[in-house]
Design goal:
Blueprint (H helix, E strand, L loop, with lengths): L1 E3 L5 H9 L3 E6 L5 E6 L2 E6 L2 E9 L3 H8 L2 E6 L6 H7 L9 H5 L3 E3 L6 E3 L4 E12 L10 H5 L6 E13 L2
The structure holds flavin mononucleotide (FMN).
The site of flavin mononucleotide (FMN) has 19 residues, from strand 3, strand 5 and helix 2.
Amino acid sequence: MRQIEWYEETQWLHDALRSGGAFVVAADGDGKPNPMTIGWAQVGIVWSRPVLAVLVRESRYTYGCMRASTAFTVSVPRPGELGDALAFCGSRSGRDCDKALETGLTLVPAETVEAAWVAECGLHYECEIIARTQQADADFAPTDVPETFYPSPDYHLVVYGHIVAAFADR
Ligand SMILES: Cc1cc2nc3c(=O)[nH]c(=O)nc-3n(C[C@H](O)[C@H](O)[C@H](O)COP(=O)(O)O)c2cc1C
């Protein structure tokens, strides 16, 4: 695993987000890390620093983890790999099961932040939480988005993480 600049492998991240997804890992109030599959994320510059923002619906166990944590990671599978684990972590909740145990994924401590990685992945972002923004009905312009994505008011928490380190190994 070699340390990379935050912008070096964004194509890999985006390709994963457009196909099977990636894993976001944040720990619950007891410090237990929980992997959740994500398909939505943004990478760019905010507050003069590299930021990775993830969107977590209120109904997810990960929502409470993001509220309880100071950091999270995003781990990206190598192309075509870990499809079963992505599907599992994208449909089962850490509220009801130990996803690492059930999938065989290995959660290891990140290098620089209080969070864990999915060791079987080839690309990792280590993020310190800078801000959390709760979306609400009143924030949406009158497009198709609210009725398409929020038939019930399960709005996203946008969690902005400062990318303090990134690692890749293909
Ligand atoms: C491909 C894929 C992408 C997903 N993207 C997101 C996402 O970006 N945000 C989100 O809140 N849920 C997303 N989900 C749904 C969660 O992964 C799913 O509800 C999961 O079971 C929640 O786990 P948790 O309760 O342990 O947090 C996605 C699911 C899949 C299969």
